């Protein structure tokens, strides 16, 4: 598969997951619109963005239970800093950075402990989304799981999170140039994995 083909495959897979995870949850009541728009609250952000942040974390740490914990910690931190944030966009930026940093901490602890055991239970919504992927999309998700953490972060934030290079740079603490080169290396690695060839990191 060509480099452009691999990028399209990654983009299509993660965009498909984003759409699946953005579906309304039929188990939740549909909110009625107020007569006048009320200011956004922490509860609004939690309801509207939690699932996508959990998926983001799952794609970074490969473990649904841990991903849930990472997102809970991110919202806890947001609650502590709520009064200092100017608007919803700043709050979402804070949450993305917190999820990336929390995921990095998990991976550091996991490398140190060397005792990672996959969980027996998975988040039902996430499992449902993964089950709805085609075999080709599943292969892309499996290839993403082999990437070094920074490469995976960049691709997930770009194609699942829908972030620009500048936003990815802010979320990960690296330069825009590094974002671009990291994405290129990551796509090359995904291509090699999907072709069944040995990879170099």
Describe the structure.
This protein has 201 residues and is an all-alpha fold. It has one domain: PhyR, sigma-like (SL) domain (Butyryl-CoA Dehydrogenase, subunit A, domain 3, Up-down Bundle), CATH 1.20.140. It has nine helices and no strands. The chain has helices at 3-21, 42-61, 64-80, 88-113, 124-131, 135-144, 149-160, 165-172, 176-194. Helix 8 crosses helix 9. The longest helix is centred in the middle third of the chain and has 26 residues, at 88-113. It starts with a helix and ends in a 7-residue tail after the last helix. The model is unreliable at 26-30, 32-37 and 114-125 (pLDDT under 50). Residues 20-39 are annotated as: Disordered. This is SigE family RNA polymerase sigma factor. Keywords: DNA-binding, Sigma factor, Transcription, Transcription regulation. Pfam families: Sigma70_r2 (PF04542), Sigma70_r4_2 (PF08281). It comes from Pseudonocardia hispaniensis.
How are the elements arranged and paired?
Elements: H1 3-21, H2 42-61, H3 64-80, H4 88-113, H5 124-131, H6 135-144, H7 149-160, H8 165-172, H9 176-194
Helix pairs in contact: 1-6, 1-7, 1-9, 2-3, 2-4, 3-4, 4-8, 6-9, 7-9, 8-9
């Amino acid at each position: 598969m060509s480099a452009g083909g691999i990028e399209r495959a990654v983009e299509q897979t993660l965009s498909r997951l984003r759409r699946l995870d953005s579906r309304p949850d039929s188990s939740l009541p549909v909110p009625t619109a107020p007569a006048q728009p009320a200011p956004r609250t922490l509860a609004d952000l939690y309801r509207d963005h939690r699932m996508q942040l959990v998926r983001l974390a799952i794609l970074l740490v490969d473990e649904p239970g841990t991903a849930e914990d990472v997102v809970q910690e991110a919202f806890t931190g947001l609650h502590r800093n709520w009064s200092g944030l100017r608007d919803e966009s700043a709050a979402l930026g804070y949450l993305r950075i917190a999820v990336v940093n929390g995921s990095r901490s998990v991976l550091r602890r996991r490398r140190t402990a060397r005792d990672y055991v996959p969980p027996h239970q998975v988040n039902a919504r996430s499992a449902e989304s993964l089950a709805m992927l085609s075999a080709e999309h599943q292969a892309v998700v499996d290839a993403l799981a082999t990437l070094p953490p920074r490469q995976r972060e960049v691709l997930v934030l770009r194609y699942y999170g829908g972030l620009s290079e500048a936003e990815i740079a802010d979320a990960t603490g690296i330069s825009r140039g590094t974002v671009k080169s990291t994405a290129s290396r990551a796509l090359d690695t995904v291509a090699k994995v999907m072709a069944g060839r040995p990879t170099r990191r």
